[in-house]
Design brief:
about 675 residues, mainly alpha, two-stranded antiparallel sheet
């Protein structure tokens, strides 16, 4: 019998960041800057230590927890509760969220040192951590939705943290609106589960999933009848498309770089954007029952993985390169979900969280050193000035491109192999997308790396943004030399670099090919054999790394690095010539495939036209014009007629009475008079 976890321990993990957020947010002036970061870091540190204890209990002792903590509301037979479900999947997510959040909290002390909103920022990121923990620890759809919306709200506050900056306000509104589109699908999916399964509890809903799979919607569509389980899964996945930035609901994530850099790492590397991946993995008992839904997931993920990678090639803002990399890697995770390799998807989620947080925080360190110039064309040669940032960024880049023995290699190669073994519709395109994506990832990653840390120093004789050009004794202009960031910035980089290198080697056995996720993830091996086939060719982490040196992805990654080295260090005239020759392609990429144009000119404009039509035609013309004002005018006209009759003179009333009597008598006697006349 599996050991059980302490409910008090789980409550401590979830509520410690909330306590820190409340102190920093409500008593920020009283506790000051030092108090704000002390209490929030302490809260997240407690949460991380508690999460590590939970992980140890789950992995070593086989401990589990699935119970209600608080019963909020009962309507008929439907219970709305706060509860925790802790298994391998939850324990892994808790540790990833709290560890990356802890690193971001420490890093923020240095990055936001001079910002007037210091306490507010710490309150937000600590509240974000609480929201994410509530999401991943939930055992029911209601709490999942609470966490889902809470991370969306806090991300809105964080992306628009610099609320006097117009681009930041635009970006946070864009993120909010796009996520509302996804959340509309998400709540429809939850509503269908409640309507047909009659429960919000995961365990009860999953137990009824086979029954739901037998229900077919009674009306025919263009492709025949729709299975209820397919509709539920696609609706839930639309929610994931918004939160995890899958095409076409990806447009908010690159713009969200307008927020401070620590937020880019927290929201877009480790937590919020992976919520959709986690949710689909948690819902595996449902998704396994619908091949149509899995194919939909697979194709959407493939398009995102390939085409968002292309956009990373042309970016010159250091944070946007990493942002498009995140989009592409989320596509890889989604592809893994589509081929029923859920454990591989969440394994890549975990490895990616470490090296992508490292790359974002490394980019922030570069931005600090460059006095907030984010254009990689103004950098170069920084490895001499920022050695810690340089080496940690190199390790993060090597992990990202899937270098054997690094964390990203084990997860990315497992995804490619899993797709190879899949026979679902769309798996052929997915195989091409994830394989081609390896070269593209290596190319844009090392394009950024070489332009930032190698080659000539392009920042000399150029004042940094917002600074005056200084002059030496001879009157020659010169700019400040970049410098290494303080220890509160570099320490998190070093701590994140360690798992970016070793976590894949240490954990691929139990997490992908072992039974770590055995009761959290359900796979129908008979219908979806990718994971079973993957297990047959796995002979240990070391053997996988040696074999990786002989595979196509390794040579594609090597080719991408070599091409970036040639183009941006040895022969920069080549990319310039390609740029001129492929100008239409460049225009297409610069306009981000015209998704924003379509959204603004077609969807938004169409919505405005429809809204204006309903306002002027429906509200003003019909409701106000006919029913409200029209009835008032009719009463006025009738009153005007009646007013002519109601004069107030007695002789007039007597005349009307006589005429009335005469008319009435004529009407009653008319048949008799008619007979006499005949």
């Amino acid at each position: 019998m599996a050991a059980t976890l302490s409910q008090n321990l789980l409550l401590t993990v979830a509520l410690a960041p909330l306590a820190g957020a409340l102190i920093a947010g409500l008593a920020g002036k009283a506790v000051g800057r030092r108090g704000a970061h002390t209490f929030t870091i302490l809260g997240v540190l407690i949460a991380f230590i508690g999460s590590a204890m939970v992980l140890k209990s789950v992995a070593v002792d086989g401990a589990r927890f699935n119970a209600t903590v608080y019963e909020w509301l009962v309507i008929g037979g439907l219970k709305m509760e706060v509860g925790f479900m802790v298994d391998g999947l939850t324990a892994m997510m808790m540790c990833v969220v709290t560890f990356v959040s802890l690193m971001v909290h420490v890093y923020t002390i240095g990055y936001m040192e001079e910002d007037p909103g210091y306490q507010r920022f710490f309150a937000y990121i600590s509240l974000f951590t609480f929201s994410m923990l509530m999401l991943v620890m939930s055992n029911n759809f209601l709490q999942l939705f609470f966490g889902w919306e809470a991370v969306g709200l806090v991300s809105y506050l964080l992306i628009g943290f610099w609320f006097k900056k117009p681009t930041a306000v635009f970006a946070n509104m864009k993120a909010f609106l796009v996520n509302r589109v996804g959340d509309f699908g998400f709540i429809l999916g939850i509503g269908l589960v409640v309507a047909y399964a009659g429960t919000l509890n995961y365990t009860e809903a999953f137990a009824k999933a086979p029954e739901l799979a037998q229900i077919v919607f009674p009306y025919p569509t263009w492709g025949g009848d729709w299975m209820l389980i397919t509709v539920i899964c696609i609706c839930l996945f639309i929610g994931a498309m918004g939160k995890s930035a899958q095409v076409p609901l990806h447009v908010w994530l690159p713009d969200s770089m307008e927020g401070p850099t620590p937020i880019s790492a927290l929201i877009h590397a480790a937590t919020m954007v992976t919520a959709g991946i986690f949710m689909v993995a948690r819902m595996s008992p449902m998704f396994e029952l619908s091949d149509t839904a899995l194919s939909f997931v697979l194709v959407i993920g493939s398009i995102t993985a390939l085409f968002m990678g292309f956009l990373g090639i042309i970016q010159n803002d250091i944070k946007r390169v990493v942002a498009y990399s995140t989009l592409s890697q989320l596509g890889y995770m989604t592809v893994a979900l589509g081929v029923s390799a859920y454990s591989v998807a969440v394994f890549h989620l975990m490895t990616h969280a470490f090296f992508k947080a490292l790359l974002f925080l490394g980019a922030g360190s570069v931005i600090i050193g460059m006095h907030h110039d984010q254009d990689i064309r103004n950098m170069g040669g920084l490895r001499k000035h920022m050695p810690i940032t340089w080496i940690t960024s190199l390790l993060g880049s090597l992990a990202l491109i899937g270098t054997p023995l690094f964390a990203g290699f084990y997860s990315k190669d497992s995804i490619i192999e899993a797709v190879h073994f899949s026979s679902l519709p769309g798996s052929g395109f997915a195989m091409f997308a994830v394989t081609a994506g390896v070269f593209i990832t290596a190319f844009y990653s090392f394009r950024m790396y070489f332009l930032v840390f190698h080659g000539p120093e392009r920042f000399h004789h150029k004042p940094f943004p917002g600074e005056h050009d200084h002059h030496d004794d001879h009157g020659h202009g010169h700019a400040h030399t970049p410098h290494e960031s303080p220890w509160v910035v570099t320490a998190p980089l070093l701590l994140l670099a360690v798992p970016s290198v070793v976590i894949g080697y240490l954990t691929i056995g139990p997490m992908v090919h072992g039974d770590f996720f055995k009761d959290a993830i359900v796979v129908d091996a008979a219908r979806h054999p990718a994971m079973a086939e993957l297990g047959k060719i796995f002979h240990g982490a070391g053997a996988m790394a040696l074999h990786g040196l002989q595979t196509l992805p390794f040579w594609l990654a090597l080719g991408g690095v070599a091409t970036a080295w040639l183009f941006y260090l040895k022969a920069p005239a080549i990319p310039a010539a390609i740029d001129r020759a492929l100008k239409p392609v460049r225009t297409l990429l610069e306009n981000k495939y015209y998704f924003d144009w379509f959204n603004e000119r077609v969807l938004s404009a169409g919505a405005r036209v429809l809204g204006t039509g309903l306002w002027k035609g429906g509200d003003q013309a019909v409701i106000d014009g006919v029913f409200v004002n029209g009835s008032a005018r009719a009463v006025g006209l009738l009153s005007g007629v009646v007013r002519l009759v109601q004069t107030g003179h007695l002789y007039w009333y007597a005349l009307v009475m006589l005429l009335g009597i005469f008319g009435f008598m004529t009407w009653r006697l008319w048949p008799f008079l008619g007979g006499l006349l005949r």
